[in-house]
Design goal:
Elements lengths: L4 E7 L16 E2 L2 E2 H10 L5 E6 L3 H10 L3 H4 L2 E5 L6 H7 L1 H5 L4 E6 L7 H13 L4 E7 L7 E5 L5 E5 L6 H4 L3 E3 L3 E4 H8 L16 H7 L4 E5 L12 H21 L3 E2 L6 E2 L4 E2 L4 E2 L4 E3 L3 E2 L4 E2 L4 E3 L2 E2 L4 E2 L4 E3 L2 E2 L4 E2 L3 E9 L4 E13 L4 E9 L1 E3 L4 E2 L4 E3 L9 E3 L4 E2 L4 E3 L2 E3 L4 E2 L4 E2 L7 E4 L4 E5 L3
Parallel strand pairs: 1-4, 1-6, 4-5, 7-12, 13-16, 14-17, 15-18, 16-19, 17-20, 18-21, 19-22, 20-23, 21-24, 22-25, 23-26, 24-26, 25-27, 26-27, 27-28, 27-29, 28-30, 29-32, 30-33, 31-34, 32-35, 33-36, 34-37, 36-38
Antiparallel strand pairs: 2-3, 6-11, 7-10, 7-11, 8-9, 8-10, 38-39
This protein binds uridine-diphosphate-N-acetylglucosamine and calcium ion.
The site of calcium ion (CA) has 2 residues, from loops.
């Protein structure tokens, strides 16, 4: 049949059990909030519209949602405000006017289920279309069930209704087939059934889970599809569940990377976001953290206690122990660290090396250039084959402005040189140890002293 697909995500609740000032769907797993995880999965269904019901901290949730998708997909987002949270059915009711405009089917689930896979939602949709149902829901089985809605069936095993745990009779409470909260609806049938919801239950709320029963009463077919992996569909209610889910998703990412040829020495102590890509034969040592939009090439080594955020690293690079590299690029065959800090926007051309106790910010090093010891490089553009001596500092800040330093190709900066920016050191020049360079150095000069003076011409 292949009807157009629409998705509705409920994300209006505060999440009382998180004991937080922040709405539950804004809590993060990896570097992305829960809402971003579910939206990215929803986007994989290539839906016509993604409706999101927001309430608590609506503005922040909307911003997080918009930021989590590429521009083309973000255009499919339609936010609906549920000012007062009167239950999951009430949340969908609030979206009625918006949903009415859509055609095809509607997949509904909750914003706190970050592990759900698109293929599981596709299985739900396929069963819905195969059976020509008005509603289809996923069911799971857990012995010793948590506080989930129970799936009540008749003696022949036909689905009858969902009963919330708090409304269960003792017999119903013993049922181990449960509602994880993933539904597919025919839109007109859903809209008609929503009108029949009442808050006559233990929580005084409008339950979305009453919709299937109303559809059956109207002689419309309701189907179920059983899902083996209950953990994939877990909703997060507490910080303990958040940590457990983080661990699960972390392991999925590490397994994917190992399956593609990356060595992870100790998966239990390695933290890599699901957005990260790593090439073959790269080795990740214990206690490494890699976050955000990071891409690491093949045959690299990332050593322990390093944290990489939004880095692009070419093939054959070594990041030694205890480096913090943020928003930076290593072209290939670079060595960095131990104990290097790239604060932001550092670019190394091929085979450029950075050693220990070097801090860099908004700086570029050309091919085969080196800065190996105890140095600060800020707003510096450094050419090819430059050697920066130990203890060199770009004095880039005059109290008001950040000023640039340019060091041309084949320069040797002597140990403990201060480069008082803005300043340019011409090609092939040398500075003596302890020089304080306050004005531009012509190409091919040896400078020394405080402030540094040209001593002689060393090259023509
Ligand atoms: C719900 C189901 C239950 C199922 C369980 C699975 C209902 C009535 N019950 O219960 O059968 O087993 O999920 O996790 O649906 N929300 C709103 N507006 C509201 C209320 C909730 O947007 O007025 C959102 C919440 O932000 C949350 C989601 O809906 O993300 C689920 O709400 P929650 O109160 O956690 O439902 P459960 O009691 O867990
Ligand atoms: Ca819940």
């Amino acid at each position: 049949m292949n009807s157009p697909i629409n998705v509705l995500i409920l994300a209006a609740g505060l999440g009382t059990r998180m004991k937080s000032d922040q709405a539950k769907v804004l809590h993060k797993i990896g570097s992305r909030p829960l809402i971003a995880h579910v939206l990215r999965t929803a986007a994989q269904l290539d839906p016509e519209n993604i409706f999101v019901v927001v309430g608590h901290q609506a503005d922040k949730v909307e911003q997080a949602a918009l930021a989590s998708l590429d521009a083309a997909t973000a255009e499919k987002l339609r936010f609906v405000l549920q000012a007062e949270q009167r239950g999951t059915g009430h949340a969908v009711k609030c979206a009625s006017e918006a949903i009415k405009q859509a055609s095809g089917l509607l997949v509904v689930f909750y914003g706190d289920t970050p592990a759900v896979k698109a293929e599981t939602l596709r299985k739900l949709i396929a069963e819905h279309e195969r059976g020509r149902h008005a509603a289809t829901l996923i069911t799971i089985r857990i012995e010793d069930p948590p506080a989930y809605g129970r799936i009540v069936r008749d003696a022949q095993g036909n689905f009858l209704k969902i009963v919330e745990e708090r409304d269960c009779s003792p017999d119903q409470r013993a049922i181990t087939e449960l509602n994880p909260g993933f539904y597919c609806f025919d839109i007109p049938a859903l809209l008609a059934a929503l009108k029949k919801l009442t808050p006559h239950n233990a929580q005084g709320e409008y339950y979305l889970t009453d919709v299937p029963q109303h559809l059956l009463e109207a002689d419309l077919p309701v189907g179920t599809v059983f899902h083996q992996d209950a953990g994939e569909l877990d909703g997060i209610n507490t910080r303990i569940e958040l940590a457990a889910m983080w661990k699960r998703l972390r392991r999925e990412t590490l397994d994917r990377l190992m399956a593609s040829g990356v060595t992870i020495v100790d998966p239990d102590s390695t933290y890599i976001d699901d957005s990260v890509e790593i090439g073959r034969d790269t080795v990740i040592h214990p206690q490494v953290v890699i976050e955000g939009d990071s891409r690491i090439g093949g045959n690299c080594e990332i050593h322990s206690w390093s944290r990489l955020v939004n880095v692009h690293i070419g093939d054959g690079c070594r990041v030694l122990n205890s480096c913090v590299l943020i928003n930076s690029r290593l072209a290939g065959r670079n060595s960095v660290g131990p104990f290097a800090h790239f604060r932001t926007e550092v670019e190394l051309a091929e085979e450029a090396n950075i050693g220990n106790f070097v801090e860099a910010k908004k700086s570029k090093l050309g091919r085969k250039s080196k800065s190996m010891h105890l140095t600060y490089l800020g707003d510096a553009t450094i050419g090819d084959r430059v050697n920066i001596g130990a203890g060199t500092i770009t004095c880039n800040y005059d109290g008001k402005n950040k000023n640039p330093t340019v060091i041309e190709d084949d320069v040797k900066i002597g140990s403990d040189t201060m480069l008082v920016a803005p300043v340019r050191v011409g090609q092939g020049s040398i500075s003596g140890a302890g020089s304080v360079i306050i004005k531009d150095v012509p190409p091919g000069s040896l400078v020394a002293g405080v402030p540094a003076q040209v001593k002689k011409k060393i090259k023509e």
